[in-house]
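Researcher: First entry.
Model:
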Amino acid sequence: MTVPELHPNRAPRWLTPLVRAATAVDIRAMTRYTQPQPGNEPRRHAAVLVLFGETADGGPDVVLQHRADGLRNHAGQVAFPGGGREAGDGDPVQTALREAAEETGLDPAGIDPLTMLPELFIPPSGYLVTPVLAYWREPVAVRAVDPGECTAVVRVPVSWLADPANRFWVRHTSGHVGPAFQVAGLVVWGFTGGLVDSLLRMGGWERPWSSPGVRDLEWAWQAARDSRIGLGGVSGADA
């Protein structure tokens, strides 16, 4: 594997605390799965692009996508753009940029890769995932390029994710309970919900919050779908 080309010095001032924290983060503070267990070895390496941009009126935001319901792994979940490493990918940065361009139509030439987080293991799919933090220097309009892969691409303001009113704990049918967010008519949970929770904390964006209880995942999704009526649907947002 080639050495990734990273440019942490290109981070804007508001993103610098997160970049610095990422270089010293303890993986045990980010996930309950610190490493693959015997009998559940990783089946594939993957990378996701944690792409931060900013708008004149909305402040910092991050790109998320809603994965299609028919996918084999993590169907119907909200995720960062990304996917499995291909033979031609030299490093996780190349994987993350290639997959994100294929899924959302973004232009990698306008993106500055800043740093990488440690590999995180996802037991349900058996993936070892490297989150690549990046700054969107020259944003372009994004969209769901292939409906078979994802049904929506959105730029979500960090302030929305940090808003205590949008945060809660969710319970999966397996019994697992984890952090979740309801934003833009979507429910961010699972691996992505846990990663967003960590990013808010490391970036200094987290606000004090408390949840009155744990919501069942299906109930949370129904509430999110109901909220789309007021949003006029969910679609890719122009840069």
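Researcher: Second entry.
Model:
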Amino acid sequence: MSASRPRLLISALKGGAGKTSLSLGLSAAWRAAGRRVAPFKKGPDYIDPGWLSLAAGASCRNLDPYLMTPRTILDSFGAHSAEADVALVEGNRGLYDGFDAKGTYSSAELAKLLGCPVILVVDCTKVTRTVGALVVGCLQFDPEVNFGGVVLNRVAGSRHQRLIERVIRDYTDLPVLGAVPRLADERFPERHMGLVPPAEHGRAEESLAVVTALAREHLDLEALWAVAQSAPDWKAPAPGSLFPDAEAGPPVRLGVVRDSAFWFYYPENLEALKNAGADLVSVSALGDGHLPDLDGLYIGGGFPETHAPELAANESFRASVLEAARGGLPVWAECGGLMYLARELVVHGRAFPMVGLFDLSLVMEQRPQAHGYTRLTADGANPYFPPGATLAGHEFHYSRPAGPPGRHDLAFTVDRGCGVWSGRDGLVSGRTLATFTHLHALASPEWAPALVRLARQGRG
């Protein structure tokens, strides 16, 4: 079945060139004009999608060619853009940057798979005519990429802008669809894992209003809309479920720790748990005094390091988690969740007690200790995955173990990535499994049914 599906992908020559600010401003401006925007983010990410969800007023979905098959990407994109007026995909890194020298899993490859016209964002800081060479190079590097236009970012002034526009006009057929000035006020400050999340920003709505105004003033919104409209008709694959068929059984109460310390959850992960038979119950490690009555618990990633004093001070909640986990409650924890289940978290030389399920001290460093895709093989006893199961995921953390993780089993061999210790990941204690690796439900469809299955067993 073919249908009109306006869409475009925002990319750049490098990371930090302004893709996110442009994507936010464009999404918010189109939304304010009454257009329904379906936002997507290429690659593993939680923070940019949080901002994009806020700007578009719709849940942002990740599309990752490393984690997902082409068919899964097409199914997810098709399902989550079907009711929108336009789909906007924010790329990551530079347009052609990928897994290897061939650019495998790059934003360019994703654009070709989805049939998205590409808008190229160019950071014009301290360059003029060289911009033309860079744009020409991108055009010639892969003739199969469909470029829709160029947006100039961090332009020094009108003279600077006119010169670069003339160069692009003389050497390419691409239109310049906007020129954004260099800003003195940084509305989206960064810290160790990227942008400050919307929940912690303090002026998120104000900052979105600023980038919306910039988009209206400095982008040709209607020309960009026309580029999105120029995308080829969407040839939808035969409809199918994104998740496995649910196993028969009663619903279970599954707690999800959701607060400003723990909020790294892909929408699909939560949907997969619901599809498998879970009723999700939000709990807070910061504000709740203890765990409610639950059949299982999911502790995602986040920023426990920036909330360490508050997490440590909530002794009753930590004690209830420890008691429940030792009592056999199924618990799945990722990255920040693993840190929370450790004995202590050391931040700026100060040790904060955590749950203490695992005999592990984690130290926050100034530089990333692991950053990138992972691939795991299950070869240790664990309650979730059979021997030989392979999992694709990603990790990004600044914490490291101060020493070996006590006498704990580790479920996975790390074939790619770092893991917890000595090439292994997945701390196991009873029916708890905690990893530095983040999983995506569309890449690991067996994960959600396994967690719900364990929760049902506990009910019996």
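Model: Note on the second entry: The radius of gyration is 23 Å.
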